[in-house]
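Weekly structure sync - notes
Attendees: PM, LS, DV (DV joined late)
Agenda: review two folding runs queued last week.

Item 1: First target. Sequence and structure tokens pasted below for the record.
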Amino acid sequence: MFQKRHLPFILIIAVAVGTGVAGTLFYRAKVAESARAQSAAEVLHIAPGTKPGAVPPHIRGRGQVIIEEFADFQCPPCGTVATILHQLEEEYRGRLRIVFRHFPLDGHQHARLAARSAEAAGVQGKFWEMHDLIYQHRTIWSTETDARPHFTRFAETLGLDVVRFTADLDSPEVAARVAADQERGHSVKVSSTPTIFLNDQPVPPASFSPPGFRTLIDAALAAPTPAP
């Protein structure tokens, strides 16, 4: 009799406790999500009112000659140029800097997701490693209906925290960084990829070869250094 009379009250208490636990878990999840987003923003240095171009940019090498590349990961010539520039950075070590800028084209289905994947890896310090993997396997993921599983596997290959990678991939901070590079591209009249500038001067596509780049780099190195 006691059990039957008090059963409704027991059920009410159980429901209340369950609701409280669920609410606590939801709150903790939202707090964790907020902390993750803040961490991504801190790593990516996203700030309102900055000039066009992600800050800091992704740079390979050090030197007085600066090549700024606007590229789309799904663009075949961009992959070829990326390989050439990496080789030149090694060849001109200490004299050449390569600056990478995202410029995903609307006609390429997975280009923006690829750019965000590179940035999500960058949050964990692996931008260039992801950049290289994406280009190396472009002919595979670019033909898929859904390329996301490929980028997730790349993250696993690089030893990234895949849960965080997946969350950062869709974060507004990562999207803002890609958009900032694209805005910079528009500000300097970029309309196709690859588009390349050497010390702020446009490089003609006819020079997108090792000999062509070497000629321009050597000329820039030989030019008198402007007075401060």
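Item 2: Second target, run right after the first with the same settings.
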Amino acid sequence: MAHERGGVRSGRPRRELAGEVEERILEAAAKVFLGRGYDGASIDEIAVEARAGKPTIYARYPGKEALFGAVVAQKIRQNASFDSAAAGGSSSEDRLKSLATALLERALGSEAIALVRVAVAESRRFPDLASGVGRMALERGHETIAKLLGDFARSDEMAALEAFAPDHLAATARRFTEMVVLPIVMRALFGENPERLRAEVDPHIAETVAFFLAACRASGRAAGAPSVVPAGS
């Protein structure tokens, strides 16, 4: 049964409130980690901010590192929740540009950048923390982009390209994501002005998508794909 102590709840919440408690803990933890950094954050302060008892937090997360990982995982899930609407357009190039724009808009969000900075700042003392954050972000992003590329490759010229064959799709998605995101996000992590970076997004995406498509087309056609006769030939 839950008890009140000084305005802070402790104990196990009713089942219908568990999701609300979880969300409150993660939001409070994100606020404290962003405000104080990883080392300066404490479970005590997070408990007060979340209006939850420390036993409630420890029942879900064995320590601060696990809680930080859960906060990052939540932000990554939110940032990677794309659907086919994120890749709108009438041509392969337009659809890839739309997808790249959505990717960078999420990646440049202030909380996403700030949480990665927190992890990097603690990488010497907590190497698993930083590497885990990076691995989690990349894996989730690659999975999402691979699914989207596979979905719309079936309906246009990309279906005939070897780079979009099922056994190559994961590697293609990884290269696309890294080409689009890393050059801009790395500069954001080093503190470049966000507005200046946003002004560079459109030309960066246009250049990257053109290069990516040219490379995919140059890599050859998938085995058994029908030939395409250029218009007017």
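Discussion on item 2: The beta strands are 3-5, 8-10.
Action: LS to circulate a short write-up before next sync.
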